[in-house]
Amino acid sequence: MADEEDTREVLFQDWEGPDKTGLTIEHTSGGELLVKEVKGESPAARSGKVYEGDQIVGATIYFENMSSEETAELLKTLNKHKVGLKLQNKGDKSPCYSPLSTPCRSPMGTLTWEGKSQFGASSPEIILVSYLKPKV
User: Fold this and answer.
1) Which long-range contacts (CB under 8 A, 24 or more apart) does 104-113 make?
2) Is Nucleus among the key words of this record (predicted)?
3) DSSP state of 107
4) C-alpha torsion angle, residues 76, 62, 132, 26 (rounded to 10)
5) How are beta strands 23-27 and 127-131 bridged, if at all?
């Protein structure tokens, strides 16, 4: 697996699946998900950041253009996977409110509170991040 400094994120504003984005994705017998091909003049090729042989180790899905029904269905399909939710406090409760009165922290120590900020009207309120770990 690549070092963390070799990892990069590429944002596709209008993702419609790997075919329309210009990617051929391959699942290897070793459990890796690889970019097999980047089609010329595709959004992936024009990004200049996607290369044949890249391992796909994670994805960020922005909910801003999804209906709440689509978002709920997507979340329901993610059983037994590492998922981090980015949340925005929309109520009058403190950011670290817990019904159990426990501190606000990630069990893995990987999520951090970014403070109460206001996103733009078209920005997502929740970001789903799923990082895949290759099977060894």
Assistant:
1) 108/82, 110/84, 111/84
2) yes
3) T
4) 100
5) unpaired
Contacts of residues 40-49 at CB distance under 8 Å and 24 or more positions apart, as own/partner, are 43/12, 43/14, 44/10, 44/12, 47/10, 47/12, 49/8, 49/10
- The dihedral built from the CA positions of residue 103, 59, 72 and 70, taken in this order, carries a sign that is positive
Question: Whole-prediction pTM value?
Answer: 0.58
Would you say 131 and 1 are in contact if contact means Cβ atoms under 8 Å apart?
no
- What's the CA gap between 35 and 111, in Å, rounded? 28
Give 5's DSSP letter.
G
Q: How far is CA 48 from the centre of its chain?
A: 20
Amino acid in position 82:
K
Residue 59 CA to residue 35 CA, distance in Å, equals 14
C-alpha distances (whole Å) from 98 to each of 103, 104, 113, 115 are 7, 7, 14, 16
